[in-house]
Amino acid sequence: MRIPHIFRIGALVLGTTVFYGYVGQMVPQKEVQPPEDAALGPEMTTAEMVKVGRQIMEGKGLCLTCHTIGKTGALRFPDLGGIGARASSRVEGLSDVEYLAQSLYEPTAFVVPGFPPAMPPVNQPPFSLTDQEILSVIASLQTLGGTPTVTLQTTHKYSPGTAAPAPEAPAKGATQLTPDTILQPLVSHQAARLDGAVAR
Fold it and tell me: pLDDT digit string (tens) for 52-74?
């Protein structure tokens, strides 16, 4: 007796479903909850900030997804072991706090040689760390080979309220580009074309 084609396809689909269902149950299941915002109070000590900063690095900030601490060899991103000691000498003119802040707010400003400029700013999505959370991460990073000095009152170039550098004045005699200076020739040209079309 010959089994109809439709029943063979149905048996194949059912067998495949049962097989993958079985394999899926063998894989360990782990429930992942969305990260919680760190509870930071105005009276927090530096030691408390270090603890919160490490929790952020392991959780909401996802720092340890790409970075390692104390590993060598072929690494995806720079190892953070000893960063607290290296930070003040990494970029000339930047203190350890300023360098670490720059690395978090503007990570492509200085890229460690041999690594790609692939880290996104942590104060923007998908991380969206607050300024206080970033200070806590800086405090935690300072402990990796150094001594934490950051408090919630510490300021740096990226601190809220820090004035942005004033734009440079154009050189004498140079045309300053504004929306008006860019669009005016285009508008004049279109108006001349319309006048010509009406005159015909």
Answer: 999 999 999 999 999 999 998 88
